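Incident log, structure service

09:12 report received: a user says their structure output differs between two submissions of the same chain.
09:20 pulled the input from the user's history:
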Amino acid sequence: MYRVISVDDEPWALTGLEEILDWEKYGFTICARCTSATQALEEIARQKPDVVCTDIRMPRLSGIELISQVRSQPEQDVEFIIISAYSDFEVARKAINYGAAGYILKPLEQSEVSATVLRLKERLDRKRTNGPVALDLGDSKSVLTAAAGLPSSPGGERQCFILVTEKARPHSWEPPREWAPIPIELAGVDRSIWFCITEPQALKGLTGRVGWSLPRQSAQELPDMLHEALAAFNGGFTYSPHPITAGVQAYLGENFAQNISLGRLATHFFLSETYLCELFKKHTGCTVLNFLIQIRLSNACLLLEESHMSIKEIAAAVGFNDYSYFGRIFRRKIGRTPDQFRSGGQG
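09:34 re-ran on a clean worker, output below:
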């Protein structure tokens, strides 16, 4: 059983939270009920709970301050659920920034409490086993089930992303706790993959080889998010905030190995070729053709580093039917021949 401490300065609210669910049926037991955040700090230190459900507006010490103080103690590994009145909605968002696992609005609705508790149970189970969410994109049912268990965005600036980095090694970078990261293990993909909730601006400061999906309010479109993030990682690009341009980037990131003409691309997006080119250049700073070449070369670099394919096979795999042209464009853009790149030599 996971241990829960509930915190609210109104005793009737504590009773209502306890009675709205059969907590033990969900794998939880309420081990303490506190009528102040100060009392809660004492109980958290004494009982070492897995979860704290707390109101926000309380005398002396608020729920936000309670979370902040507990988070400042590394030995306290506690998940927080926020209980908030509608007037506290903006403050609830701030709580999510402290890494809260979710929030429930007053007056309590059993369906909302149940859904939040189920998501939290999955999160705690993963933490207990230290296991990621295992997915196979070929098994749509399992992906949809996993998506339903992932948290939603609290709204505002914070949104849901899939983040892809190089395979984690000891002491390697991981997303900060404030992003509520959940690791994902994708069948056949040797990358570190995370489901995160954060502001888009925070992602722009990342360095090294990294890719992320377009933002969503929830994980409902998890398969698309995974494809987008992997395409961005492999293609070495970030998505434009302009929706049509980002859609073109995603399409090229997925279909770069095909023979893509400008006319075909424009038809796919119901645009004229001229407008498509102007729009893309305006929002990315490069032409459609140069962007496509960038994606192909970026994927080629990964294959040169990670596969035993011949250079001729790699050229064909990334969309270059002319092997000689591939060698010339690779040397011009990368500064080394494919052979030199694979061996680590200089041009």
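09:41 both user submissions now match this output. Likely a transient worker issue. Closing.
09:42 reviewer note: The chain has a mean pLDDT of 88. The beta strands are 2-7, 28-34, 51-55, 79-84, 102-105, 133-135, 159-165, 182-186, 192-198, 210-212.
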